[in-house]
Amino acid sequence: MTLADPPLDAPPDAAGRVLCRREGAVARVCLSHPGRMNAITVAMWRELARLFQALSVDRTLRCVVVQGEGGHFAAGADIREFPQARGDMASVVRYHREILAPALAAIESCPHPVVARINGVCVGGGLEIACQCDLRIAARTARLGAPINRLGFPMAPDEMRGLLKVAGHAVTLELLLEGRILQAEEACAKGLLTRVVDDAELDGEIERCVGRVLAGAPQAAQLNKRMAARLSRGEPLNDEEYRRFFSYAESPDHREGVRAFLAGEAPTFTGDWKE
Amino acid sequence: MTLADPPLDAPPDAAGRVLCRREGAVARVCLSHPGRMNAITVAMWRELARLFQALSVDRTLRCVVVQGEGGHFAAGADIREFPQARGDMASVVRYHREILAPALAAIESCPHPVVARINGVCVGGGLEIACQCDLRIAARTARLGAPINRLGFPMAPDEMRGLLKVAGHAVTLELLLEGRILQAEEACAKGLLTRVVDDAELDGEIERCVGRVLAGAPQAAQLNKRMAARLSRGEPLNDEEYRRFFSYAESPDHREGVRAFLAGEAPTFTGDWKE
Amino acid sequence: MTLADPPLDAPPDAAGRVLCRREGAVARVCLSHPGRMNAITVAMWRELARLFQALSVDRTLRCVVVQGEGGHFAAGADIREFPQARGDMASVVRYHREILAPALAAIESCPHPVVARINGVCVGGGLEIACQCDLRIAARTARLGAPINRLGFPMAPDEMRGLLKVAGHAVTLELLLEGRILQAEEACAKGLLTRVVDDAELDGEIERCVGRVLAGAPQAAQLNKRMAARLSRGEPLNDEEYRRFFSYAESPDHREGVRAFLAGEAPTFTGDWKE
User: Fold this and answer.
1) Which CATH number belongs to the domain containing residue A206 in this structure?
2) Do A156 and B245 touch (CB under 8 A)?
3) What is the mean pLDDT of chain B?
């Protein structure tokens, strides 16, 4: 059972998996739990963490797309596991701090741009995953929310942080206090989504988005991600941080970008660069 | 006189009051200053603080609705009192730090979900009150703003904080530097409102909103509010804070929520719980 | 060459300048680089810093409008200068920290309200300038973005801070990772703009906006700007900061604002006031 209505014909023991397919410089991470709207099991959270840790150190990668299999992004954590996996206080703490938090942190700290391809149901843990991605592109019929107030518990701190970063204080509390499910357009107006397209346009827009990311220099993307996270901490940068940041200046891609622009050519970025 | 045009037939000495009506687990707080569009007097600010302090410790309460009487939310602080109540620097400081700030702080720190029902004029101090509520639902003809630049003074720090939290830096400065009055739709697009409905739908939507809040577990709502406020401070949580947060795991409502969900039943939450 | 397509008939050595015209209490700062869509040269960044430092200490000033000459706001930094002005790491650091950062800081710290009048192309450094203004009013056909990922480098920290303040984490990364150019309406929906008007209405709306600013007390505007910046730092104010803030209470304009309001008259603000 998940936060959305489960299909009655779902095989109760269909196994959940996180699949990863590599296409050139792009990795497709797929949440897959057939018949369960990709409800995320403990095994899937762990695999998600392991997978993103591996993708993060892959220097040939340029972009990651996270998606769900079969019409939905993800219906949240698999609640059927709760009595066993988070039945008392010790296991609740373990579940949130040692299983969910590391998976979300692994996505957040991925140095490559991460795009969420959102369709169908994207609630609870599914929304938490989407909020750790850099770009959230949704089909118009997608539904988003975090109706966990009906389950009797609040959103864990390391999960709420992602919503706050993306949508701010007021929208985060709106989602959690009312437990309402939002259509994609409303979610987008509230800042939860990067953009919304017609369902038939979703894959095309994802490809265009990935194409735009790939047209840029990889280290520029990585430094932009790292600096945006760093600046949100508020304290001024020290000289060593400035120096490390600006070390890109000696990279081949920086020289190539300016050269190509002035020559009126398309740049060819290699990603070769070491701080 | 208020920041909006006062009706000419207003009795100059109509008394302002803050009324509170209890309906089961819901408290209705009503700003009432007849003929003055609920302009908020010193006595009303003090009553608002006192009232919210009392509501905050009421463990049988589940939701608070703040509204105005007779077609308006509130037209701001009662400026007729200014010559006497804030005529020199000492009284200006006292007015803002010892009268307004505690009232706004009492709303902000209320552990129960607080919904603002906004219609008519919601400006100045009225908007400041609305920004301390968790949800702001407005009628389409509502008007919002903070045109105090025409009064020759800036918004006090403890008042501005609420606007910054809800609408951010750019929108807060837009409101204060231009002193423009926004229609509800524009205010909503800028993040100042949770949602806008047709005037005839306002009470219905407030009931639905309250119903959604009441369908959730009380302690989940309280922990979500507290944690959203805590996380906005930026510093990492320590282990004791995590432990206190996750102590909900042993509550009857947490067990009931998961049990009911897995049984396909509606949960019955009691709110019985002690950290 | 700039981040947008340069017109072919541009004289390659047209000089860029920053012009300033004074009209009563309003200063018009104009980015002017004819035939180059106002691409901003090193000399222009320096002049911008110098100019805003001078405007900042001018106590007779009440509002600043920043605009571009001839159909565009600004097409970003002048990339033709890059091989010479930021060719190696030392000069890259110098360019961003000693040339761009001080110009942006001078706009940000200007005590007077600053309005950006945005039309045509507003990208890269042009967008960075706009984000340091208090209000951003754009023509419907304006285009905004920061497509520097194609140039092989990331946005410098002191430049990114302005985007984060105005549009938040998610929108800033969207702009930088995709390098997409947004139409004004989309940029406004994402919080990058204060408002969008038809092209033919742009000058009229700028005048109305300036008129609204001028209708307020100058010190109220300055204190609002300063306090919004101060509160974004998070730490509580100390008593001395409160005392300095509330010292406006003894100003003639404060007394005039309340007096005029209660008398039903339009106030006459002088700006005479010393903390």
Assistant:
1) 3.90.226.10
2) yes
3) 93
